[in-house]
């Protein structure tokens, strides 16, 4: 399943830029959507996509063939997103948020370009709420939830990408889901 | 089963990570606990909303690929020779070996430009410029070998006369008991070296 990517990687290692361009074509949308959901900012998301591929290119020699290529590139992309989120705002605990019920929401502090094209793409009120609910998740839960729901990954795949035990991922999905359930309570 | 346990199982169910036995227990609990039924309905709905949100995806900029390709460093252009060498290490080693051997053989050949006279008893031999003369009243006991020079034999040689890269002139008075060889070419020189190596006196094919 992953053989096409592996073949392209082998060619790109030898300096074949066209093979690398094909890798970019295969993954730019996936990484963009991951980054866009993580950062809610189109410009930043495209920066992350660019940085991801630059890092992939520089580390082609270090890519281990036994690993799925998608896992590797998602790991790079996810880490870049998390770095950006960390620089952006102070981290806060999800537990604190959950016990204080409707406290100050994290998303109030996150810059977002909601008023740009996204505002007419999010047509329904429900869509807007889901968007805001995901945005308000603390980074470590946000990452897991985006990989789980918006990238359609299994718990095992998420665990491979984030290099964390499956049990940790499971706990985070559970907590993230509870968090979103409360956020969306009015809608459901 | 208490409600806290039930909620944990609900999440496992939504993650497709619950075995049949536990699922049955959860179902039994929910049938008699309206609060958990409501909780599960909400979680399922949140799940559905999240999956539905997936479809609202924005396209990337058209020029994103070009932008990425313009920032990646250009690959070092390897010369065709280097690539070939990397692909054929054995042939390369063999070629280098042959080259080294050829140059050393050639340099040996070229270094032999000066006159060299070899022989067991050279007392009577006269050397003028690059001419080796055996005067008519002299006797050379043994072989006489001359490199890069002329040989003029007037007297007696009790053995072979070998001239490499040169000429032999035998006067009528000359008396050579062995044979006379003239070697002019590289090939002959190599043959001479080989036959010399195996002990027997030089003899050209």
From TrEMBL, chain A:
The keyword Iron does not apply. Coiled coil: none annotated. PROSITE patterns: SIGMA70_ECF. Pfam families: Sigma70_r2, Sigma70_r4_2. It comes from the Bacteria. Residues 24-89 form the RNA polymerase sigma-70 region domain. Belongs to the sigma-70 factor family. ECF subfamily. NCBIfam families: PRK09641.1, sigma70-ECF, SigW_bacill. This is RNA polymerase sigma factor. It comes from Paenibacillus profundus. The lineage of its organism: Bacteria, Bacillati, Bacillota, Bacilli, Bacillales. The gene is sigW.
């Amino acid at each position: 399943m992953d053989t096409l990517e592996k073949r392209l990687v082998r060619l790109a290692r030898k300096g074949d830029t066209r093979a690398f361009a094909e890798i970019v074509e295969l993954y730019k949308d996936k990484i963009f959507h991951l980054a866009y959901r993580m950062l809610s900012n189109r410009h930043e998301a495209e920066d992350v996509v660019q940085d991801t591929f630059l890092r992939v290119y520089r580390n082609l020699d270090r890519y281990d063939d036994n690993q799925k290529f998608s896992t590797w590139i998602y790991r790079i992309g996810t880490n870049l997103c998390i770095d950006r989120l960390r620089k952006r705002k102070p981290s806060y605990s999800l537990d604190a948020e959950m016990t204080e019920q409707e406290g100050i929401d994290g998303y109030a502090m996150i810059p977002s370009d909601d008023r740009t094209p996204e505002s007419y793409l999010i047509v329904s009120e429900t869509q807007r709420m889901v968007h805001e609910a995901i945005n308000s998740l603390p980074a470590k839960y946000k990452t897991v939830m985006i990989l789980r729901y918006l990238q359609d990954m299994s718990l095992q795949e998420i665990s491979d990408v984030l290099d964390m035990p499956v049990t940790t991922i499971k706990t985070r999905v559970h907590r993230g889901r509870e968090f979103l359930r409360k956020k969306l309570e009015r809608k459901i | 089963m208490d409600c806290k346990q039930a909620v944990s199982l609900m999440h496992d169910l939504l993650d497709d990570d619950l075995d049949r036995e536990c699922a049955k227990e959860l179902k039994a609990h929910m049938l008699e606990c309206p609060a958990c039924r409501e909780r599960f309905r909400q979680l399922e709905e949140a799940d559905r909303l999240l999956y539905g949100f997936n479809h609202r995806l924005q396209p990337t900029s058209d020029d994103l690929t070009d932008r990425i390709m313009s920032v990646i460093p250009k690959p070092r252009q390897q010369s065709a020779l280097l690539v070939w060498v990397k692909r054929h290490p054995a042939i390369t080693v063999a070629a280098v070996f042959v080259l080294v051997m050829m140059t050393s053989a050639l340099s040996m050949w070229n270094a032999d430009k000066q006159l060299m006279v070899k022989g067991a008893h050279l007392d009577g031999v006269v050397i003028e410029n690059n001419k080796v003369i055996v005067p008519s009243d002299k006797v050379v006991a043994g072989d006489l070998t001359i490199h890069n020079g002329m040989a003029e034999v007037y007297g007696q040689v009790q053995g072979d006369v070998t001239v490499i890269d040169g000429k032999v002139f035998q006067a009528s008075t000359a008396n050579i008991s062995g044979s006379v060889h003239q070697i002019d070419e590289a090939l002959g020189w190599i043959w001479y070296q080989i036959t010399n190596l195996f002990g027997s006196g030089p003899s050209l094919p």
